[in-house]
Amino acid sequence: MKKNMLVYPLFVMLAVGLFTACAAMPVQAAGRRTGPAVSPKASYEAEVPAASPDIDAIAELGELRAGVEEPFYTNSAAFVVDVENGHNPYDVEWDYGELYDVYIEKADWSLVFDADFYMESFPALALLYHNDEELLLEHFQTVGIHEGRQGNEDFNVAAYQKNCKKELRDAFGDHYECYYFYWMLNQNSQKDITTSGKNYPLQLGVKMTSVQALEFEKVNEYRAEVGIEPLEYDSELAAVACYRSWVDISEGYGGHDWLNDEANGERADALMELLDMSLLGENTVDCGVKDSSQHVYTSFYINYRYSTEHYEAMIRSKYKYFGCSHIYFGNNRIPKSKRKGTYNQPMMRVEFDIFTDELSTPMHP
């Protein structure tokens, strides 16, 4: 296992490393959640969920939790981004179950989503997703609407929430996804309500997997111990962290070698300019593994705590914003001549924590 910290102020780069052993234990194969086996008769008699446009029915969607919001041990494979074989090679999948999928199929997403608008509004996410419009729509359907992200020019959920009936606000509260579904499934009664205007935010909140949430919590605990102000989580900065993990796997880099490679100088500068950052700090854990059956380590904050350079990055007072990646897994593309120590395995897995002092994003304009 290799852990690194780097401060990257556009022109100055510094990398440090620490090596420890990788733990191994079996995990599930990657894939969506599966329920218990049922007999053919029970399956035949099972009631098929239906997408109701009623307020009470849609309000129930706000109580659903995705698999990646549950504890890691309940379905560890769901927290891993399989760069080689995953349906989405850039991000984890947020699976809320069959009922939620039925609502996705029922809704007319052209009413609330335009891919070009989404990519322009969330450029780091677009970079991570390689401008894949189908996957970006899936992100909007399963993450974006939960965060209150604006998906096109015509529908801003904050505007709709302000102008809709009090009955909806009482039923849905701040479960933003419910407002989108109610709007889409009740056009006859809702289409004349004002859903846009100036000064409404492009995003209202953030969603994290349970692994990301724990990482964020523990980093801020370390800061609190020494009297440093807590970091604020930013989903666009988290997209940058995910992109860094994806790059290292897909392009065959270890640690901070991608940033240290002069050939990537323009790309690195562009990455920072994307969010108007002048300073970037990163901690990373990467490790070679034999195959997908090896355990994926998740308590990255513990590794960083017991390495001086990484710990100092977590408690540095100049940093104000934070984002962390998922766990990325794929073939080891590092040149064989550089595969020493922990890298001398056929597969790799990577995680990044990213810090910055200032940025400009929909959550932090």
Shape: globular
Number of helices: 16
Terminal residue distance = 37 Å
Task: Summarize model confidence as the mean pLDDT.
Answer: 88
Q: Work out the helicity level.
A: 25-40%
Query: Quick one: how many beta strands?
Result: 8
Structural class: alpha+beta
Comma- or semicolon-separated keywords:
globular, 365 residues, disordered N terminus, single chain, alpha+beta, eight-stranded mixed sheet
Structure commentary:
The chain contains 16 helices and 8 strands. It has 365 residues and is an alpha+beta fold. Strands 1, 2, 3, 4, 5, 6, 7 and 8 form an 8-stranded mixed β-sheet that branches. The chain is globular, with a radius of gyration of 21 Å.
List the helices and strands and how they pair.
Elements: E1 2-8, E2 16-19, H1 40-45, H2 55-59, E3 80-82, H3 98-106, H4 115-121, H5 123-128, H6 133-144, H7 157-163, H8 166-172, H9 176-185, H10 187-190, H11 210-225, E4 232-233, H12 235-251, H13 257-260, H14 265-274, E5 280-289, H15 300-305, H16 308-315, E6 321-324, E7 327-331, E8 347-356
Parallel strand pairs: 3-7, 4-6
Antiparallel strand pairs: 1-2, 1-5, 5-8, 6-8, 7-8
